[in-house]
Amino acid sequence: MAFVSLPCAAQEQQSSQAASQPQAAQAAAQKSESEQFLEKIKHSGDEDRHNLRVLARTTVRFVHDNISPDFADILAKKVCGVRVISPVLGAILILAAWALQHFFIAFIFNLIFRTKDKETVKASRLLLAKLRHPISWFVILVATDAAILLLSHSPDFTFTVRRVSTVFFFVLLCWVLRIISDVFFKMLEERMTVQYAATKNLLDLGSRIAKYAIYTFTFLVVLDTLGANITAVVASLGIGGAALAFASKDTIANFFGSMSIIVDKPFIVGDWITTVGIEGTVEYIGFRSTRIRTFPRTVVSIPNSVLANATVENWSKRNKRRVTMTIGLTYDTTADQLEQIVEDIKKLLRENPKVDSSDIRVSFANFGESSLDISVLYYVFDLNAIPFGERVQEINLAIMRAVQNRGLSFAFPSRSLYVETLPKTAK
User: Fold this and answer.
1) Which pLDDT score, from 0 to 100, does residue 25 have?
2) Residue 167 has pLDDT above 80, yes or no
3) Measured between alpha carbons, how far is residue 253 from residues 38, 176, 277, 306, 395 in Å?
4) What is the pLDDT of residues 26-53, one digit of tens each?
5) Which of 342, 346, 398, 405 is nearest to 373 (CA)?
6) pLDDT digits (tens, 9 = 90+) for 52-92
7) What mean pLDDT is reported for the chain?
8) How does pLDDT run across 270-290, given as a tens digit for each residue?
9) Are 203 and 187 a contacting pair, CB within 8 Å?
10) Quick one: residue 277, left, alpha or beta (phi over 0 = left, psi -120 to 50 = alpha)?
């Protein structure tokens, strides 16, 4: 009977195991992604600790067989429950990491600088120069994590060490992604703003959005590593975001106003504009407002939602600047002299390379109260204030010399009194 019952017991055990396997699979499926991620961290820490202990034993065996059995015995001894080989090997790993982080970057630089493409060398130099510090800290982090695991005896302590190391790893990864993003947008700005100056604002906005996205991603991953319920956190952020959206509708309107300004490009940073009664130079286009430096040197911040719906007069978009003036000559100027001086002014304007010769208007316009008025209108290609002022001064001096060469005189406001009869004087 006993021999008969043994197979039955085995069958019951197999059936119970088969029934328990779906239950285990179902329990594993019910675990959250956060718990699975933490289990992976714990498993990797235990596996790395085991591998490091195997490395320590292999090192002791190598020393015993090839260097000195006595020295191997010293390394195998325990002090305060820790074998001597563990701190020695940990110190060696940290020193090796320190040496590696000093020479590895130089080696990579030498490989990159062998290329003949100057643009590639410049971009690589900029990127690697910025990546030097996070790469160095990563190498030291790996060595420090290994050294601490060598000294660890408790699985819980190993799990804590690996969790802290993972947090620092993601912080370093955030640093690296931020550097790559900055270099990428800087290269785009250098290449695209040469032909499309207005893209600078869009690239600045893209750089800021990428930076905030990297920070948010790192924050959520660090919370997940520390055991927080990311689903609840994201849901809380969603609810809080909805409440914040209702409370900050003006801010959202300003954000979309900034997007409209960047896409439509009515102005860019550095333009001289006039809008909503404000005149000055655009200094900054942000998410919420645009800052304008006025000519009295004050700074005015205008909400982007207002600017997106306002009329903007962009003086920097002019391809030339207009100059108008009236020249008054004295009444003793003859008609022939007026015709001659009008032609002289037209000629000197046409001969000036900075004047648009296709649109010059000079004519005898009016009989003024004390002068014969000549109207002058022309356009100068100089747009900036200083060269424009110098060009106008040059033309005004040339007109003065032309008037003097003709022997004519400029009029000034005056009145002549004519007395028909003089009063009789008393004898």
Assistant:
1) 47
2) yes
3) 41, 33, 21, 9, 49
4) 444 445 556 665 666 666 666 666 666 6
5) 342
6) 666 666 766 666 667 767 666 666 666 666 666 667 776 77
7) 75
8) 888 999 889 999 988 877 788
9) no
10) left
CA–CA dist 401, 196 (Å, integer) = 44
Give the C-alpha separation, 326 to 365, whole Å: 9
Outline where DSSP puts E strands in 134-259.
Answer: none
Q: Which two tokens stand for residue 229?
A: 């319920």
Among all chains, which residue has been given the structure tokens 């060269």? 387
Question: Cα Rg for the chain, rounded, in angstroms?
Answer: 42
Angle ∠(258,261,267) on CA atoms, nearest 5? 130
Give me the pLDDT at residue 237, please: 62
Name the pairing type of β-strands 312-314 and 272-275. Answer: antiparallel
CA proximity to 135, closest of 70, 92, 179: 179
Structure tokens that stand for 188 in this block:
């785009």
Tell me the C-alpha to C-alpha distance, in Å, between residue 321 and each of 50, 127, 273, 355, 380.
79, 44, 15, 10, 5
Got the DSSP string for 346-363? HHHHHT-TTB-TTS-EEE
Residue with the two structure tokens 């400029």: 410
Is the pLDDT at 414 greater than 50? The verdict is yes
In this prediction the pTM is 0.46
Residue 415 in contact with residue 368, Cβ under 8 Å?
Answer: no
Alpha-carbon distances, residue 358 vs 130, 304, 361, 394 (angstroms): 54, 40, 10, 20
